[in-house]
Design goal:
Mean pLDDT: 92
Organism: Gordonia phthalatica
Low-confidence stretches: none
Number of strands: 6
GO molecular function: beta-phosphoglucomutase activity; metal ion binding
CATH topology of the largest domain: Rossmann fold
Enzyme class: isomerase
InterPro entries: B-phosphoglucomutase_hydrolase, Beta-PGM-like, HAD-like_sf, HAD-SF_hydro_IA, HAD_sf, PGP-like_dom2
Shape: globular
Helix content: 40-55%
Strand order of the largest sheet: 3-2-1-4-5-6
Largest sheet: 6 strands, parallel
Strand content: 5-15%
CATH architecture of the largest domain: 3-Layer(aba) Sandwich
Order of helices and strands: EHHHHHEHEHHEHEHE
CATH superfamily of the largest domain: HAD superfamily/HAD-like
Number of domains: 2
Number of helices: 10
EC number: 5.4.2.6
Length: about 240
């Protein structure tokens, strides 16, 4: 009744963009942080800088930042522009992004996708065990603000990734840790992701099912399928209609 194979007993949900409408808030916060950095670099007396200092775009977010731990996102984007930063600068960019995100969270609150809430209720009623696996270090705050904490048996977040020295997505380590906490092999767990890096992580971990959630449109669905998604939906409650 959940649109999953019968042998799946655990659901490992990414948070931002899958359960809550916070991916757009992350994207705006990253845009502000990176554009501040690029503007500052543009003022440096270094010849030959043109295209690499162009403003941060939504496509940059999807290609280099979405789904990755915060510092990995900084390094990935900066490297994509052929720029070098020291650890202090990278940390400052990440801190600026987090400050902007937390300010937006406090100002605007968090919306859980109605289709995701319906799916969580159906999953819990059907006896599916639920964990959240997110690269965000604000996972607990977002779950509480969205009223979703009651559904979650275990949480692996950005703090877990740092504390336990896990490799971030697209490596499967955080999802594998989630399955371990839930007491199942990867084959018995389904991964739910809206980021290409997360879909790649689910595929690399050989999980039993990988659900891609396309909130973007365009070529995202095809990219998710290529990255290893078993199925791609635009909202989780579409899976309920599969039955």
């Amino acid at each position: 009744m959940l649109g999953l194979p019968d042998d799946i007993t655990v659901a490992l949900f990414d948070l931002d963009g899958v359960l809550t409408d916070t991916a757009s808030v992350h994207r705006v916060a990253w845009t502000d942080a990176f554009n501040a950095f690029l503007t500052e670099r543009a003022g440096e007396p270094i010849a030959g800088r043109t295209d690499e200092l162009r403003p941060f775009t939504d496509q940059d977010y999807f290609d280099y930042v979405d789904g990755r731990p915060r510092m990995d996102g900084v390094r990935s984007f900066v490297a994509s522009r052929g720029l070098d930063v020291d650890d202090a600068t990278a940390t400052a960019i990440a801190a600026g992004k987090n400050d902007a995100f937390l300010a937006a969270l406090q100002r605007d609150g968090v919306l859980a996708y109605p289709g995701s809430v319906r799916y969580l209720h159906a999953a819990r009623d059907a006896g599916l065990h639920i964990a959240v696996v997110t690269s965000s270090r604000n996972g607990a705050q977002v779950l509480d603000a969205a009223g979703l904490t009651e559904f979650v048996e275990h949480r692996v977040d950005g703090n877990t990734i740092v504390d336990e020295h896990l490799a971030g997505k697209p490596a499967p380590d955080s999802f594998l840790r989630g399955a371990e906490l839930m007491g199942v092999a990867p084959a018995a767990a389904a991964v739910f992701e809206d980021a290409i890096s997360g879909v790649e992580a689910g595929s690399a971990g050989r999980f039993g099912y990988v659900v891609g959630v396309d909130r973007v449109g365009g070529g995202q669905s095809a990219a998710m399928t290529e990255a290893g998604a078993s199925i791609v939906v635009t909202d989780l409650d579409e899976l309920l209609a599969e039955n």
